[in-house]
Amino acid sequence: MFTFPQQTDSAHVRLETSREEFSAVTDCFRSFTDLSRDHTLFSLAMPSAANDFLIYKKAAADVIELSVRDSFVDIGGQDYKLNMWHSVCATWDSQSGLGQLWMDGKPSSRRLISSGSNIRGKPIIILGQEQDSHGGQFDINQCFIGMMSDVHMWDYALSPCEIQRYVDDLNFTPGNVLNWRALQFQITGGVLLENKQVNEC
To answer: What is the pTM of this model?
Structure first.
């Protein structure tokens, strides 16, 4: 797992992919934090749009913002408790323009975010910071503090059954854009790579 132990406007993990166009996206990860302020969970930026695919936890207790192509929706009713592991997945499809959030296997309403245009360009994918420009312009008050693991990304919308298999850590198809089991990444600043903590003795 990646451990982000302190508030900073520089420490982050950059995830590598050669893919440069997406007509659909699914992103899944597990996170653990005690932050009650705004913070970023996943940030994909292109040269044309800093928030091409962004998952962002708002300070409001139950709201997560999902952004695609710089258009966003606030998704409420999310049971995002502090100091426990959560499985978070988000899907989006350009044909319908619909996005959906899955918190610990529970789906949100499907919401119209951005339609008719693919995510296109050279992506920079960041964990730990929110990109206000392509690859930078980080805000210390939006950084993530906590732990993250099991990051996967696909270039299609996973079915509810596939998402549930990820949540339950069953035999699911790994991401074909980002695959935690074969992740290519670069760490900048004080981010630690550690074994995931489990409550078993």
So the answer is: 0.93
